[in-house]
Amino acid sequence: MFELLFAPFAEFAFMQKALVGCLAIALSAAPVGVFLMLRRMSLTGDAMAHAILPGAAVGYLVAGLSIGAMTLGGIIAGCLVALVAGLVSRFTQVNEDSSLAAFYLISLAAGVLIISTSGSQVDLLHVLFGSALALNNEALLLLASICSITLLVLAILFRPLVVECMDRQFLQSVSGLSPFTHMCFLVLVVINLVGGFNALGTLMSVGMMILPAALARYWVRTLDMMLVAASVVALACSFIGLLLSYHIAWPAGPSIILMLGACYVVSLVFGTQGGVISKLKRPRHLSA
Amino acid sequence: MTTLFELNNLTLGYDLHPAVHHLSLQVQGGDLLAIIGPNGAGKSTLLKALVGQISPLSGSIDWCGFDRERIAYLPQLSQVDRSFPVTVKEMVSLGAWTQTGPFGRVRSRHRRKVQDAIVQLGLEGFEQRLIGTLSGGQMQRVLFARLLVQEADLILLDEPFTGIDSRTTADLLALIHAWHRHGRTVLAVLHDFEQVRQHFPRCLLLSRQAIAMGDTESVMTPLNLQRARQMNEAFDEQAEFCAHH
After folding, report:
1. Which chain A residue has its CA at the smallest distance from B76's CA?
2. Looking at CB atoms within 10 Å, which of A11, A34, A248, B101 has the fewest?
3. Is B55 on the interface with A (CB under 8 A)?
4. What is the mean pLDDT of residues B145-168?
5. From the CA of B90, how many Å to the nearest CA of chain A?
């Protein structure tokens, strides 16, 4: 059993680094995903994941396969798209989701164009699908920093964020924090996606946010439990996904996301809070 | 009584169309004032401007030294996301925001206030229920409990009794009267004229402009109500720019 579960991490430094990196992403992306889902912005996360592509591509063109340059590029591109989409929705008739869709599509097209004309297929695959088993110390430092910043900001802004999600008018009536909270949250989404793309790629990093959050909702009712459940599942699936990757020689990123996907399907069927079976069962009811 | 705030030639609107047009009036501290008028008369818009959610197109609001953090606002029920997983107790606790700020701890004195408010609004036993499982009337009690915890000096209520049964309405009206007795100022947007006549000593009849304001009986005359309906129907998509800017 030890051989199966722990030997890969004990023996190989690249597995240790992959584990530390994926656990850091899981710990920070999962709670962000819970708020993203509760704000009905799950697909916004997907859009933002695409929006960071041109920034990462430009970073790659300027400095080669440098984690720092690609991350900085991704953060700038993601924040720019979020900011412009927010400003457009505030000053025109267009909703934020529509303007975000417009800008992320422009951003995605620009990113693919930059990579296709200036890089190679291998580069494109690296950016799209990541390489969890090739994380170096620089990448680990970045992921740990993103994780720390995210948890700190979530702890500080927890109350405004909850109220912003649930009753924005109340927040606007008691404080001027609503736009600040919204922008901080979008920045958290962007930095977590950028952190995630190093290991999981731009296309799958959003999975680490949305899948744990979505499946947690099938098991628990309250926000605090949802945050805990999403984080625990994300951590567990990162661990198991990396083991699968090692033992069956699957790519690490898809293995982790597929593990989360499998847990989601199980939750969808068996979840006690609105899962398919609980819906089909004729529940007993209380007398009052 | 002292003047709590003053509207000076205030115009509010959307897409340059005035929803409230050149409104000038004073509200005194301790007023219990109903705001009535037809749909689209600018009643909710006026409350949103008072809490700073929309800016004037022209004119101004003079707060006469009143601290705007002492305002509590109850918007229409539908604007709260009731699918969000928070409990009744957590929702009521948000009322302590004005004392704790966004980052401060909810202390035992705040928790006592929250529990008192829950008891006063008849929500005992509901503390751990998620707000999504409540009926419309129960949810409105929760929002009033939150207002109670806020301990604001100016309370703005936007159609607080819409879709609420008579017993809950009576309980909430009793609470409003208690606020009034304690010297707080309450402005409530209402549609039920009988309710206004029975419970609100003063009234503002609004139809984008102030048709009348004063003692309820002198405001709610058939002639004034007729004028309010006519003014409201004067909306024009092709209107020219207002000459009285």
Report:
1. A169
2. A248
3. no
4. 92
5. 11
